[in-house]
Backbone:
């Protein structure tokens, strides 16, 4: 199972699309690793600088409808090769969400007020997330402030995470 | 309890329910192109699972960057070509026979009412125009589709959008779908199937229905879907005439997939288009929509007519009617890309290509290229394109470029004016 722990990147905008996550011109790359330098390159957001803000991050916290637009699985791959296996948001576009779990990664939905509280408490501070997969909680900490939030994913999604993705699961079961 | 179209299709195709709300369905068709399929092929090889569930149900095209523009895109084509050959996939459309996937596959009769279709391309929702469940997926879902002929989806909760009233002259399916997205938002149909119905949809030809369903994904929809009717049967008749004695028999058969009168919808919206005017996007999200009149005079650098949304013969006819006897403005360059070789040939035969060329358009071969900023019309930083495509995301047609989405009529009028313009100015 992949790691869902580490430093948090806060992306304070809804409807971040997969063209912003990884522009189409990089879809000619055959290797996933080649996508690494271009993650979120076209994301236009005040105060966000992809060149400096992504390094060392392992978790993304964002708003609603993250990953809308193109079906490209290059979006989860570009996150993965940057060491990011967990995106936490208010909601996700269907294809992006499925792609994440199909890769054994996680797209975790939390209520809007919880997301608001995470932004209010932690955005702009060096924050670490620690996931208890079996217990279904994520603990966010910055300095001496800490907040543990429960999350729910379906049994099927959990199976994909533990199996490391959909291919082996499907080949074994269908 | 009554069922929607998608619920009926799911009931006919379900092979497993790994979770209360998760349905594994059998696939009638898996479509492939050279961008998202090669990583699936390479991963199957790596897992020692280089197999296909049924070579006759897998349809393959090179379309996104065609012909190849560099060594990387050439390699993508090479991987796809070799794979199609080694698995004896007979419906493989290589350079010369290839066109934009969501235009060429319907044209070949590969989609039927009641079908389940996936493709590693978000605009796969286009094929719902035939009363099919068709959904864009990522590479892993595609990979499993290729290997096992199945895909997993949540319960197909359905939103019903009745397009009511009468479509005014000079207002098209593109204007309708832009106005719908403007109304419900880019997140308005997430995880839902949109059933497009009502008198305006019933009166639309298949190409207009494809334009409508094509952009369901821009509202987050899993699939746009139209009720199969006589228009559907007539379009498909050359492909199904050996299966049915008469078109009426086909229609009666397809009626299995009509929604029940008491079907349960998550939302029902009546969308009256009687007062609709031509629409255009501003900003960087497809729900940033305004009437063309409010954006008129906005300067553009490039006009693009093509794509899986609006590169079909009826689109070219509409644009050519506006362009006939006119020249594009000296301030712009204009590109038209017929979406398939058949459309291209027909446009030549009908004299449309001459109209485009006389007006000053560059005519390109069928390819997705410019729509996603990969080839054949990429924008420079700060440039603006008036486009018949489906996405106005930041950088979509080239880093730092801006896209205004519109109908072919509006794009043609904008080419003449050199700025966003209403087609009625030129189409008296």
Residues:
């Amino acid at each position: 199972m992949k790691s869902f722990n580490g430093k948090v990147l806060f992306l304070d905008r809804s409807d971040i699309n997969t063209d912003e996550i990884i522009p189409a011109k990089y879809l000619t790359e055959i290797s996933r690793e080649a996508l690494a330098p271009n993650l979120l390159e076209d994301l236009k957001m005040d105060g966000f600088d992809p060149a400096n803000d992504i390094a060392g991050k392992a978790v993304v916290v964002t708003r609603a409808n993250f990953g809308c637009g193109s079906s490209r699985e290059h979006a989860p791959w570009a996150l993965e090769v940057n060491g990011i296996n967990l995106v936490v948001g208010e909601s996700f576009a269907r294809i992006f969400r499925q792609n994440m779990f199909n890769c054994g990664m996680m797209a975790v939905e939390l209520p809007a007020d919880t997301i608001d509280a995470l932004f209010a408490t932690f955005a702009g501070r060096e924050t670490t997330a620690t996931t208890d997969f079996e217990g279904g909680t994520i603990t966010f900490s910055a300095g001496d402030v800490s907040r543990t939030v429960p999350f729910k994913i379906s049994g099927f999604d959990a199976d994909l995470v533990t199996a490391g993705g959909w291919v082996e699961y499907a080949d074994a079961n269908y | 309890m009554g069922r929607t179209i998608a619920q009926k299709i799911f009931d006919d195709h379900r092979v497993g329910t790994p979770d209360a709300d998760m349905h594994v369905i059998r696939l009638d068709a898996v479509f492939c192109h050279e961008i998202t399929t090669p990583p699936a092929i390479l991963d199957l090889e790596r897992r020692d699972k280089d197999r296909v569930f049924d070579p006759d149900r897998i349809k393959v095209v090179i379309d996104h960057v065609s012909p190849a523009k560099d060594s990387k895109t050439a390699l993508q084509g090479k991987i796809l070509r070799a794979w199609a050959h080694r698995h004896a996939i007979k419906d493989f459309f290589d350079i010369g026979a290839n066109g934009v996937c969501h235009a060429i596959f319907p044209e070949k009769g590969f989609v039927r009412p009641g079908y389940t279709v996936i493709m590693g391309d978000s605009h796969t929702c286009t094929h719902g125009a035939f009363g099919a469940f068709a959904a864009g997926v990522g590479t892993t879902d595609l990979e499993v589709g290729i290997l096992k002929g199945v895909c997993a989806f949540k319960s197909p909760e359905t939103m019903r959008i009745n397009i009511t009233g009468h479509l005014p002259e000079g207002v098209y399916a593109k204007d309708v779908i832009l106005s719908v997205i403007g109304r419900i938002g880019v997140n308005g149909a997430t995880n839902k199937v949109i059933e497009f119905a009502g008198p305006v949809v019933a009166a639309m030809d298949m190409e207009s229905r494809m334009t409508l369903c094509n952009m369901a994904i821009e509202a987050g929809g899993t699939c746009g879907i139209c009720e199969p009717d006589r228009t559907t049967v007539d379009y498909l008749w050359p492909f199904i005439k050996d299966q049915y004695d008469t078109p009426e028999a086909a229609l009666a058969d397809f009626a299995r997939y009509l929604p029940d009168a008491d079907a349960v919808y998550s939302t029902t919206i009546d969308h009256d288009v009687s007062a609709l005017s031509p629409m255009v996007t501003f900003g960087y999200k497809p729900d940033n929509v305004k009437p063309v009149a409010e954006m008129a005079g906005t300067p553009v650098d490039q006009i693009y007519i093509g794509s899986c949304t609006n590169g079909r013969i009826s689109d070219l006819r509409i644009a050519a009617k506006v362009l006939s006897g006119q020249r594009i403005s000296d301030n712009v360059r204009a590109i038209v890309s017929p979406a398939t070789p058949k459309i291209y040939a027909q446009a030549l035969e009908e004299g449309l290509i001459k109209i485009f060329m006389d007006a000053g358009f560059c005519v390109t071969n069928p390819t997705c290229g410019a729509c996603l900023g990969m080839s054949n019309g990429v924008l420079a930083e700060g440039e603006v394109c008036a486009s018949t495509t489906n996405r106005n995301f930041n950088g979509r047609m080239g880093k730092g470029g801006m896209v205004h989405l519109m109908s072919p009529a509006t794009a043609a009028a904008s080419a003449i004016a050199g700025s966003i313009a209403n087609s009625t100015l030129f189409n008296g």
